[in-house]
């Protein structure tokens, strides 16, 4: 028998609900009151097991794959050999098939100050069948290594597909937790949308490019088995005139090839792919984007090409966020926003994913495109044709957490939290996709933020009213 009167129980229940809903209501959306314990972000030491090179003479290491064409029927396989160039060939075959095929790649090396790279191989496998598991082998008689991947389903409007989302990953203990949580998430990501800032090698003296190698060995356990779609961040620039390194993006462009020519791009920093029911546009915050520049001209021609009857979901990746209410990198994305936001609204982009700020934030559907030099209208307003902006630079790199927010929370900011984590964008059909963000501290099974996305072309209903 209870010793509490029923009114007291009711009160306790209400208080419990308020406490368990660990957010504060502010001017804008929600600022999570979850406080991650302040810990120094420490890189895993070079001898860590996650960095170990495979055994065997000249064994292929740093294996990673990405989409190799515009529609998902090709894969770029990349790897590094340290002792000699070795074989350029990828041998591959369909699951349950005995017919083995070969593709020939190219090998590259580069120098960066006092560092000389290993032999970097890139090989594009073409004419793959959709929705099929393939095995592939790299290396030669000395040491072969075998991996596998599954090609996406044929491009089409109602094809379910699940993307993982990570950014600013680095190679700390926290980075390892983020990647592990992504791998263990029961909602299995089939490809990773990576929003830039990979290794943070440039935080080391002379941009110690050994840290580019260790990073690629660290992520191999995922990136060799599913494509990571790459975006260039500021830590990919590696511009260091003080040591004679004046060619921006040198390590990144040697190590990470993307299929930019397939979308008529003229540089690997901006490009597009179709994958299942998604059209993904990758932009470069660190390449010229003003009027008349190659990126501007490309994007202007690119957006009208997106056929939402074929690929309903229009996703944009860019490193520097346009809507960011943290006191870090504040307004760094502003000039690009001014240039491109009207186009994103016109073409009804569903979601814009960015990194750079080492925390998490999700916006309302807002736009800020009414301004001209006469009217002074420069406030974000609710706009159902606008994308949702997600900042997810919370992979857990060496620079630590961004935990200083602008106050009060702006109205356009729906949810923000200074934690590390990853996200999942799970497309169900042409109208619905379920998005969830998973903070590290809670383990992979606990999501701290989620939202049902309604497609802007097929079902442009206000999600916030649901
Ligand atoms: Fe960044």
What does this 3D model show about the protein?
- The protein has 466 residues and is an alpha+beta fold.
- The chain contains six helices and 27 strands.
- It has helices at 6-20, 173-184, 210-223, 250-255, 294-302, 334-346; strands at residues 23-25, 30-32, 61-67, 75-81, 89-94, 101-104, 106-108, 111-112, 115-116, 119-125, 133-140, 143-150, 161-166, 191-194, 228-229, 271-275, 278-282, 313-317, 351-354, 360-363, 366-367, 381-382, 388-392, 413-417, 421-427, 432-439, 449-454.
- Strands 1-2-24-20-23-19-18-17-16 form a nine-stranded mixed β-sheet, with no helix packed on it. A six-stranded mixed β-sheet has the order 15-14-13-25-26-27, with helices on one face. Strands 3-4-10-7 form a four-stranded antiparallel β-sheet.
- Strand 14, helix 3 (210-223) and strand 15 form a beta-alpha-beta unit.
- Fe (ii) ion is lined by residues 168, 197, 233-235, 319, 355-356.
Topology of helices and strands:
Elements lengths: L5 H15 L2 E3 L4 E3 L28 E7 L7 E7 L7 E6 L6 E4 L1 E3 L2 E2 L2 E2 L2 E7 L7 E8 L2 E8 L10 E6 L6 H12 L6 E4 L15 H14 L4 E2 L20 H6 L15 E5 L2 E5 L11 H9 L10 E5 L16 H13 L4 E4 L5 E4 L2 E2 L13 E2 L5 E5 L20 E5 L3 E7 L4 E8 L9 E6 L12
Parallel strand pairs: 2-24, 13-14, 14-15, 17-18, 18-19, 19-23
Antiparallel strand pairs: 1-2, 3-4, 4-10, 5-6, 5-11, 7-10, 8-9, 11-12, 13-25, 16-17, 20-23, 20-24, 21-22, 25-26, 26-27
The structure holds fe (ii) ion.
Fe (ii) ion (FE2) binds next to loops.
């Amino acid at each position: 028998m209870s010793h509490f009167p029923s009114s007291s129980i009711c009160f306790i229940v209400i208080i419990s609900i308020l406490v368990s809903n660990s957010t504060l209501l502010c001017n804008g959306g929600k600022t999570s009151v979850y406080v991650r314990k302040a810990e120094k972000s420490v890189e895993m030491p070079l001898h860590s097991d996650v960095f170990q090179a495979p055994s065997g003479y000249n064994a292929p290491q740093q294996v990673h794959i990405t989409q190799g064409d515009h529609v998902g029927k090709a894969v770029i396989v990349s790897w590094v050999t340290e002792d000699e160039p070795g074989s350029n060939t990828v041998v591959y075959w369909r699951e349950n098939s005995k017919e083995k095929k070969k593709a020939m790649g190219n090998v590259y090396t580069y120098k960066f100050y006092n560092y000389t790279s290993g032999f970097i191989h890139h090989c594009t496998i073409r004419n793959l069948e959709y929705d099929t598991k393939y095995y592939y082998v790299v290396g030669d008689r000395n040491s072969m290594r075998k991996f596998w991947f599954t090609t996406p389903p044929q491009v089409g409007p109602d094809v379910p597909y699940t993307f993982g989302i990570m950014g600013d990953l680095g190679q700390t203990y926290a980075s390892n937790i983020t990647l592990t949580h992504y791998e263990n998430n029961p909602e299995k990501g089939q490809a990773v949308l990576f929003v830039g800032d990979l290794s943070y090698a440039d935080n080391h003296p002379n941009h110690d490019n050994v840290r580019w190698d260790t990073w690629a060995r660290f992520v191999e356990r995922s990136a060799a088995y599913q494509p990571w779609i790459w975006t260039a961040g500021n830590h990919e620039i590696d511009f260091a005139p003080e040591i004679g390194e004046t060619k921006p993006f040198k390590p990144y462009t040697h190590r990470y090839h993307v299929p930019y020519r397939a979308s008529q791009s003229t540089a690997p920093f901006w490009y597009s792919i179709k994958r299942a029911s998604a059209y993904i546009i990758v932009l470069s915050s660190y390449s010229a984007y003003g009027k008349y520049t190659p990126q501007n001209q490309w994007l202007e021609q690119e957006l009208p090409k997106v056929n939402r009857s074929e690929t309903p979901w229009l996703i944009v990746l860019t490193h520097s966020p346009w809507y960011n209410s943290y006191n870090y990198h504040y307004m760094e994305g502003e000039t690009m926003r001014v240039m491109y936001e009207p186009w994103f609204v016109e073409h009804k982009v569903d979601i814009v994913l960015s990194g750079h700020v080492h925390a998490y934030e999700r916006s309302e559907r807002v736009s800020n495109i009414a301004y001209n030099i006469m009217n002074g209208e420069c406030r974000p307003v609710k706009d159902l044709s606008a994308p949702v902006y997600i900042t997810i630079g919370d992979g857990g790199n060496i620079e630590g957490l961004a935990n200083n927010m602008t106050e009060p929370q702006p109205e356009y900011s729906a949810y923000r939290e200074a934690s590390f984590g990853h996200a999942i964008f799970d497309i169900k059909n042409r109208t619905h996709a379920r998005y969830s963000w998973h903070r590290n501290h809670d383990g992979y099974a606990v999501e701290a933020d989620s939202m049902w996305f309604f497609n802007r072309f097929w079902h442009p209903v206000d999600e916030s009213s649901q």
